[in-house]
Amino acid sequence: RKIHDNKYAIEGTPADCVSFGLFGLDLNPDIIVSGVNKGYNIGVDILYSGTVGAALQGNYFGKKTIAISGDFQGKEIVKRYLKQTIEYVFNENIPSFDYVININFPSDDFKEPKGVMISKPFFRRARLIPKIENNVFKHTKEFLEQVIPTDSDVYANLNGYISISKIKLNNSI
């Protein structure tokens, strides 16, 4: 539904929004940015992230893409460091047609990030603790004991770094 010039509403997923922009509106952007999402897209959360899904959709159709996410609880670090992080990504020539750039900002608990860390996704194992409230299924995660690789997005997040990882449709780099 067209709301007004350059503003539309669609019923669907974030990936559907990208498809609509590319094919419904016949846009040809140089780069697609998905986010800023409130909530991290690191580790296993990448698998069901709408933010990353939209970026993957754009990448699938031959576009350079970036997914950006931050803490559920706050956004001050994102506000203060988004511009310079994006400048870093472009200055280092990280955007590519071969993968999605997945950026995650650390929690505001850190006050300031320790820096930028190029990382790899780490699918940390967890046990789901299910519950049904008011006929709605909900769950929390309890992470299992594991060694967290020091080059991973999870390590970066837990240690106050801005994490930048590359995600390919067929595998991670």
What does this structure look like?
Helix 1 runs parallel beside helix 2. The longest helix has 16 residues. The chain has 173 residues and is an alpha/beta fold. The chain contains four helices and nine strands; from the N terminus they run ββαβαβαββββαβ. The mean pLDDT is 92. Strands 3-4-5-9-6 form a five-stranded mixed β-sheet. A two-stranded antiparallel ribbon has the order 1-2. Strands 7-8 form a two-stranded antiparallel ribbon. The radius of gyration is 17 Å and the shape is globular.
Distance between the termini: 38 Å
Structural class: alpha/beta
The helicity comes to: 25-40%
- Contiguous helical run count: 4
How are the SSEs placed, and which strands pair?
Elements: E1 2-4, E2 7-8, H1 14-24, E3 31-38, H2 50-60, E4 64-70, H3 76-91, E5 100-104, E6 116-119, E7 126-133, E8 136-143, H4 153-158, E9 162-167
Parallel strand pairs: 3-4, 4-5, 6-9
Antiparallel strand pairs: 1-2, 5-9, 7-8
Helix pairs in contact: 1-2
Relevant terms:
173 residues, alpha/beta, five-stranded mixed β-sheet, two-stranded antiparallel sheet, 4 helices, 9 strands, 25% helix
